[in-house]
C-alpha cells in the first residue's frame, strides 16, 4: 500500500493524493458500465445494482476478474502504470535527490539534481535508467519522479568542456538552447505544492463523502465508535486543509509563480496542523479495526463499492487512510526544496525558512506525542508489577518517565537513612523499596507531588535541618507546608543527573501545558486494562526483565526494544541500497534515545 501512494507525477495524476482514475489511464470503463444509484436515505440501491451488474458480491468479483491492468494485490497500481507508460513509448523522468557514487559498471552514477530517464521501474528498489549515453541500475530511493514530466529532453543539463557541470552555485544551469534559472525551478516547486494541495483536498473529500458518509447510513454495519476508530479526526483535517489551500491560492501568483509568497501560509497554520497528531496516534488502531472488518466479505464488498461509486483509484481503504500521515510528513521535504530554489533576496525567503523550521517542529511534536502515547502502556505494565501499590494510578497524573535510580532518603526523626528506588515522572516522584532476596521485585512506599516542590542544592557537610552530615545531597522543599525531603546520591555525577532530571520534569510539564498534550481517560483505562491482562497468574509479581532494563536506564529511559508498526516520519538521507525512500516517508520515527 505504501508504495502505491509513493509517486508524485503531476501531469499524470499519479502522486500520493490521487483522487480518481489517472487521466488517460481509465481502461476499466466503469463509467459506462455502472451507475451507482443512491436512494433517498443514502444507502446503496441494491435492486438497481442487481439489475445492472448483479449483487455487490458479483460486482466485486467482476471487478477483480476484469484484468484491470493497473490493479494489483498490494492495493495500488502506480508502479505498474509507470511501466505501462514506458512500454507505450512515453518518456518518464526522475530527478536525483542525492549523489549516487558507484564503482559497479552495471550501476548508473549521478549527482543530486541530475535528470534521469527511467527505462524500467519493475523492481521497486532498483530502477534502470539513462543519463545521456550512460545506462545502468540506480536506487529508486535516491530519486523522485520529476515535477514536470512535460519538459522536453533538451532540458537535460549539458556538460561543459572538461566534463564538469556548470557551477551550480551561480544559481543558473544551462539547458539546451537557453537557460533555466532558480526562478524556473522555484516555479516547478510552487506548482507542485499548489497542485498536490488541490489533489489532497479532493482525496480527503473522497474519503469523507465516499466512505464516511456511506458508512454512517449503514448503522447495521458500523457504530459511531467504529467509525471514529477507522477514520479518526480526518473530517477535522479536511476542514483545516480546505482553509489552508484557500490561503495558499491567495498567495499564488498565476502569471509569475516564482514570485508567489507561500511561506506565511505555513506559518499561519502551523498550530492547526497539530491536529494531525491525533490522527497519527489513532492510525494503528484504524489499521487493526480495518483488518478485523475486512475478514468479513460483506465489509470488503461494501468498501469496494464505496470506492467505485466515488470513482477513486484502485487502492484499498487502509492505503487511502495512510495519506494524511504521509502528507504532514511531506511538508518539510517540499519546503526544504522550495528554500533551495529561493534566493535570499526573495521576499518569501525568510518566511519559507521559518516555515521549514515550523513544519519540522510540527513533525517533532507528532513524533513526541506518538512516543508518549505508546509509552503509557509500559508505565501501566510497570505499575502492575509493583507490590503493595496504594492510591491512584500513575497515569492519572503522569505520562512520562523522566528518570530513575537509587538514592538514600534521610527522614525525621533521628535522621534515619533508607536506600530506596525512585522513579521521576511528570508531576510526581514515586518511591519504592527493593525486595531483600529478589532485587527485581519492588514494593510501593510513597510518592511526592512535584508540582508543589522546589529543588535545593545542598553543599557537602552538616545539614542544619536534619542535624546530620551529608554528601552529594539535595532537597525537595514544599513552600506551602514547609515539608522537606533530603536525598543523597552515591556520586557527584549522579547528583547532577538528578538535578538535571528535575529541571527536565518542570520543562516537560510546562511544554505539555503550552501544547495542550494530555492522555484521554479512555486511553488510560485501556492501558491499565491491557497491563492487568498481561500479569502472570499464580506467580509473585515482579518487574520483568525487559521492563526492569527499561526502567533502570540511567539516560532517557524510554527506548523500546522493538519499533511500533506505524511510525511518524523524520527525514534522513538514505545509505547505500536502502529500503524504498517513499516507504520510509510513511513510517513513524523510532523513539528518541
TrEMBL record:
<feature type="compositionally biased region" description="Basic and acidic residues">
    <location>
        <begin position="156"/>
        <end position="167"/>
    </location>
</feature>
<dbReference type="InterPro" id="IPR001331">
    <property type="entry name" value="GDS_CDC24_CS"/>
</dbReference>
<feature type="region of interest" description="Disordered">
    <location>
        <begin position="155"/>
        <end position="181"/>
    </location>
</feature>
<dbReference type="GO" id="GO:0035556">
    <property type="term" value="P:intracellular signal transduction"/>
</dbReference>
<feature type="domain" description="PH">
    <location>
        <begin position="400"/>
        <end position="507"/>
    </location>
</feature>
<dbReference type="InterPro" id="IPR035899">
    <property type="entry name" value="DBL_dom_sf"/>
</dbReference>
<dbReference type="Pfam" id="PF22697">
    <property type="entry name" value="SOS1_NGEF_PH"/>
</dbReference>
<dbReference type="InterPro" id="IPR011993">
    <property type="entry name" value="PH-like_dom_sf"/>
</dbReference>
<dbReference type="InterPro" id="IPR001452">
    <property type="entry name" value="SH3_domain"/>
</dbReference>
<dbReference type="InterPro" id="IPR001849">
    <property type="entry name" value="PH_domain"/>
</dbReference>
<dbReference type="InterPro" id="IPR000219">
    <property type="entry name" value="DH_dom"/>
</dbReference>
<dbReference type="Pfam" id="PF00018">
    <property type="entry name" value="SH3_1"/>
</dbReference>
<dbReference type="GO" id="GO:0005737">
    <property type="term" value="C:cytoplasm"/>
</dbReference>
<dbReference type="InterPro" id="IPR055251">
    <property type="entry name" value="SOS1_NGEF_PH"/>
</dbReference>
<keyword id="KW-0344">Guanine-nucleotide releasing factor</keyword>
<feature type="domain" description="DH">
    <location>
        <begin position="185"/>
        <end position="369"/>
    </location>
</feature>
<keyword id="KW-0728">SH3 domain</keyword>
<dbReference type="GO" id="GO:0005085">
    <property type="term" value="F:guanyl-nucleotide exchange factor activity"/>
</dbReference>
<dbReference type="Pfam" id="PF00621">
    <property type="entry name" value="RhoGEF"/>
</dbReference>
<feature type="domain" description="SH3">
    <location>
        <begin position="89"/>
        <end position="148"/>
    </location>
</feature>
<dbReference type="InterPro" id="IPR036028">
    <property type="entry name" value="SH3-like_dom_sf"/>
</dbReference>
<protein>
    <submittedName>
        <fullName>ARHG4 factor</fullName>
    </submittedName>
</protein>
<keyword id="KW-0963">Cytoplasm</keyword>
Amino acid at each position: 500500500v505504501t508504495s502505491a501512494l509513493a509517486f508524485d507525477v503531476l501531469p499524470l495524476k499519479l502522486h500520493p493524493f490521487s483522487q480518481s482514475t489517472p487521466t488517460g489511464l481509465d481502461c476499466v470503463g466503469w463509467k459506462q458500465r455502472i451507475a451507482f444509484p443512491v436512494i433517498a436515505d443514502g444507502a446503496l440501491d441494491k435492486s438497481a445494482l442487481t439489475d445492472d451488474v448483479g449483487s455487490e458480491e458479483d460486482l466485486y468479483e467482476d471487478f477483480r476478474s476484469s484484468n484491470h491492468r493497473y490493479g494489483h494485490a498490494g492495493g495500488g497500481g502506480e508502479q505498474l502504470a509507470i511501466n505501462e507508460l514506458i512500454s507505450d513509448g512515453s518518456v518518464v523522468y526522475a530527478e536525483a535527490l542525492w549523489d549516487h557514487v558507484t564503482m559497479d559498471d552495471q550501476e548508473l552514477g549521478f549527482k543530486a539534481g541530475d535528470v534521469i530517464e527511467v527505462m524500467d521501474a519493475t523492481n521497486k528498489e532498483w530502477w534502470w535508467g539513462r543519463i545521456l549515453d550512460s545506462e545502468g541500475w540506480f536506487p529508486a530511493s535516491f530519486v523522485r519522479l520529476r515535477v514536470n514530466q512535460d519538459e522536453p529532453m533538451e532540458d537535460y543539463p549539458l556538460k561543459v568542456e572538461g566534463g564538469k557541470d556548470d557551477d551550480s552555485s551561480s544559481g543558473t544551469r544551462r539547458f539546451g538552447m537557453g537557460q533555466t534559472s532558480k526562478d524556473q525551478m522555484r516555479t516547478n516547486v510552487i506548482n507542485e505544492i499548489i497542485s498536490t494541495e488541490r489533489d489532497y483536498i479532493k482525496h480527503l473529500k473522497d474519503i469523507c463523502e465516499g466512505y464516511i458518509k456511506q458508512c454512517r447510513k449503514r448503522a447495521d454495519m458500523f457504530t459511531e465508535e467504529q467509525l471514529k476508530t477507522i477514520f479518526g479526526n480526518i473530517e477535522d483535517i479536511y476542514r483545516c486543509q480546505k482553509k489552508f489551500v484557500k490561503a495558499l491560492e491567495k498567495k499564488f501568483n498565476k502569471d509569475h509563480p516564482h514570485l508567489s509568497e507561500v511561506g506565511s501560509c505555513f506559518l499561519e497554520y502551523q498550530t492547526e496542523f497539530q491536529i494531525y497528531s491525533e490522527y497519527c496516534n489513532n492510525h494503528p488502531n484504524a489499521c487493526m479495526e480495518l483488518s478485523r472488518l475486512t475478514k468479513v466479505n460483506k465489509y470488503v464488498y461494501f468498501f469496494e463499492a464505496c470506492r467505485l461509486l466515488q470513482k477513486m483509484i484502485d487502492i484499498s481503504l487502509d492505503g487511502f487512510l495512510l495519506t494524511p500521515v504521509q502528507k504532514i510528513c511531506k511538508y518539510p521535504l517540499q519546503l526544504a526544496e522550495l528554500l533551495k530554489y529561493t534566493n535570499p533576496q526573495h521576499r518569501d525567503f525568510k518566511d519559507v525558512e521559518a516555515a521549514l523550521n515550523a513544519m519540522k517542529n510540527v513533525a517533532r511534536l507528532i513524533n513526541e506525542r506518538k512516543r508518549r502515547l505508546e509509552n503509557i502502556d509500559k508505565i501501566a505494565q510497570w505499575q502492575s508489577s509493583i507490590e503493595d501499590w496504594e492510591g491512584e494510578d500513575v497515569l492519572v497524573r503522569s505520562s512520562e518517565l523522566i528518570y530513575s535510580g537509587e538514592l538514600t532518603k534521610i527522614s525525621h526523626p533521628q535522621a534515619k537513612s533508607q536506600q530506596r528506588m525512585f522513579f521521576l515522572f511528570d508531576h510526581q516522584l514515586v518511591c519504592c523499596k527493593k525486595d531483600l532476596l529478589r532485587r527485581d521485585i519492588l514494593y510501593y512506599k510513597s510518592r511526592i507531588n512535584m508540582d508543589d516542590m522546589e529543588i535545593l542544592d545542598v553543599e557537602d557537610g552538616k545539614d542544619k535541618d536534619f542535624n546530620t552530615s551529608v554528601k552529594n545531597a539535595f532537597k525537595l522543599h514544599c513552600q506551602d507546608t514547609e515539608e522537606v525531603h533530603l536525598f543523597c546520591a552515591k556520586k557527584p555525577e549522579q547528583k547532577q543527573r538528578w538535578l538535571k532530571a528535575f529541571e527536565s520534569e518542570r520543562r516537560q510539564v510546562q511544554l505539555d501545558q503550552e501544547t495542550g498534550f494530555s492522555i484521554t481517560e479512555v486511553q488510560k483505562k485501556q492501558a491499565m486494562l491491557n497491563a492487568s491482562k498481561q500479569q502472570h497468574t499464580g506467580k509473585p509479581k515482579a518487574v520483568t526483565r525487559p521492563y526492569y532494563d527499561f526502567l533502570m536506564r540511567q539516560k532517557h529511559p524510554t527506548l523500546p526494544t522493538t519499533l511500533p508498526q506505524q511510525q511518524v516520519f523524520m527525514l534522513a538521507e538514505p545509505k547505500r541500497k536502502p529500503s524504498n525512500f517513499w516507504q520510509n516517508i510513511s513510517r513513524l520515527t523510532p523513539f528518541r534515545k
